[in-house]
Amino acid sequence: MLFTPLKVGAFSLSNRMLMAPLTRARSDLAHMPNDLMAEYYGQRASAGLIVTECTMIAPDTSAFVTEPGIYSPEQVKAWKKITDAVHAKGGKIVMQIWHAGRAAHPLLNHGVGNVAPSAIAVDGDIQTPSGKVAHAVPHALTTAEISALVHAFAEAAKHAIAAGFDGVEVHGANGYLIDQFLRDGSNQRTDMYGGTMENRARFLFEVLTAVCAAIGSDRVGLRLSPLNSFNSMIDSDPVGLIAFLAERLNDFNLAYLHLMRADFLQQQSGNVMTVARAHYKGVLIGNMGYSSDEAQAAILDKKLDAVAFGTGFLANPDLPKRVRAGADLNVPDQATFYTPGAKGYTDYPMMQAE
To answer: Closest by alpha carbon to 51, among 78, 88, 82?
Structure first.
């Protein structure tokens, strides 16, 4: 089943082994994509679908110093080389459009303050050019500012299509801006964007409405992580939240829902995949720690339609070929996940021909 085609919105995928979004920090300080990134993504074109690393929808919203952006004509032009490299090898690629919210920091963004639904900082420290510093307390967004951000997501989606992407994945996971609105640990608002699940999901639904109107719902995916406590995230009812969201997301006719099934830090637990499958009628993609055997079984049992692999693709550009052949896998080098240059990025070896 991993190697059977799958129709996902406007895309026809050659297999069900998707490449999950992976922050690699290989852009420059101006957040410009480059030729090295084109080589990296082109190497991995045998994935059924590539989802890019999180990509900034607006300037001065950086959380990783050298992540890419999609808000300038120059960035659009640079990304076109990357999409061309993937398409030349028969691959499909979508851009993950993203706003870091409170996970950004003024020291990474020319002194521009970070924003969030509520003025609650992420716990702990963040790496900046000045070293590690405490996360900054964000500015609580006004309703007018929220409206402007909805527009920014839609514009980013248009820019992604102009750059040759097959579609976009809206980043609603891992403690970044949309996720900060969704979960009651970070959203303490008392207006129309806070309180009930309906209100906390309002920003997400407005973003999806705008993005779908901009490029067509069949080119829009969504990633969620209702359990993940990364970036100081918590919710009082994560299983109830995914049940509510999965049901309501049917209204959008999205290309897919991409769901992270667990918590990086193991602070929260719950069977969110089964709940999502019970409520969501569209294409459901699972992610987080699946082996190829488990992925195959989940698809055969109709628990999922596809699985996104992260570090597997990071270290194995030809992952589908290796899995199909039962070959050994390269081991990912964690020391080079976010370091500059080709080492640990484009130098993982392909499987040798028999």
So the answer is: 82
